[in-house]
Amino acid sequence: MTETASRPTLEAVAARAGVSRATVSRVVNGGDGVREPLVERVRRAVEELGYVPNQAARSLVTRRHDAVAVVIAEPETRVFADPFFALQLRGISKELTAHDSQLVLLLTEGRDDHARVGRYLAGGHVDGALVFSLHLDDPLPGLIHGAGVPTVFGGRPGWGDGVREAVYVDCDNRGGAREAVRHLAGLGRTRIAHITGALDQTSAVDRLEGFRDVMGDVDPTLVVTGDFTPAGGERAMRELLERRPDVDAVFVANDLSASGALRVLREQGRRVPDDVAVIGFDDMLPVAEQTDPALTTVRQDIEEMGRLMTRLLLSRLDRGAGEDGSGGTRPSVVLPTTLVRRASA
């Protein structure tokens, strides 16, 4: 058997620093009113002894939990299969780690999970929330608003009631879609189709609008509804080829769906880009560089979006949020997109 060393106490730190226990408590828990020389002595003693502050005691002083909820409005089967979420979570995690804060991941499988997430946020376990992949009929925004938790959204929220002012980070979905379709038209393609994302999400709606900005009153047979998944891309591509076997270009709402569309084109003997040019959206390298052929796509900086969401939230927390969690007005951020040209178009 081995003996486990006892954890250093506030009293031990106070003895090492030659100050009172109350002084040590104020320093390690973020309180004010301690002269700088004493602060340095306490910090040196903390480091020498390896003292770890009690988080519960610290929260009583700072009214902060140093924890942020990341709420993804998707089931775990989708979250862990889609590299988009991994990239965004990586950006969030890096930023929270740099600020010594913890990430609490909350996923929603169904309506019961929405209520559970709402109760957790209202329970005061975290300082704020980062929420993304919302659907238009999602009750989460209302539950979060009712909980009074400072929140930043990933993606433009879809509600239009003019009551809830949301801070969000998004990319220029509509502008990126326009650039993709213009590129296809510039290649001389005249029967350009679009496989949409899930149209209960604003990113898919905005990309469809960008497609229409360039194509005008397009033949409805050239627009097929997808769902942002590889299987959805396969299904939509088969439907499109049945409707319009003469199609010569496809703008697909994301890279995962584009990978599915490419598989169907290959199965049916369509050469890409000779017969059908294909462009995706996202530029997720694990997908875009490994398709056959490599995928031309619209790049959005997904990891940077996660970092910016976190910075906006932490900035609101540092300023102090009001009772409604608004924390005052703060401009949302829309990041630019760029077309990355590879072999598929």
Outline the fold blueprint.
Layout: H1 10-17, H2 21-28, H3 36-49, H4 55-62, E1 67-72, H5 76-79, H6 83-98, E2 102-107, H7 111-122, E3 128-132, H8 140-147, E4 151-154, E5 168-171, H9 173-186, E6 192-195, H10 202-215, E7 223-224, H11 230-243, E8 249-252, H12 255-267, E9 277-282, H13 285-288, E10 296-299, H14 302-319, E11 333-335, E12 338-340
Parallel strand pairs: 1-2, 1-3, 3-4, 4-5, 5-11, 6-7, 6-8, 8-9, 9-10
Antiparallel strand pairs: 10-12
Task: Sum up the structure in keywords.
single chain; alpha/beta; six-stranded mixed beta sheet; 14 helices; 12 strands
How many strands in all? 12
Distance between the termini: 67 Å
Low-confidence stretches: 321-328
Helical amount: 40-55%
Q: Classify the secondary structure makeup into a structural class.
A: alpha/beta
Percent of residues in beta strands: 5-15%
Largest sheet: 6 strands, parallel
Annotation field: number of helices: 14
Calculate Rg over CA atoms: 25 Å
**What overall form do the CA principal axes indicate?**
elongated
Mean pLDDT reading: 86
- What order do the SSEs take from the amino end to the carboxyl end, as H and E? HHHHEHHEHEHEEHEHEHEHEHEHEE
**Spatial strand arrangement across the major sheet:** 2-1-3-4-5-11
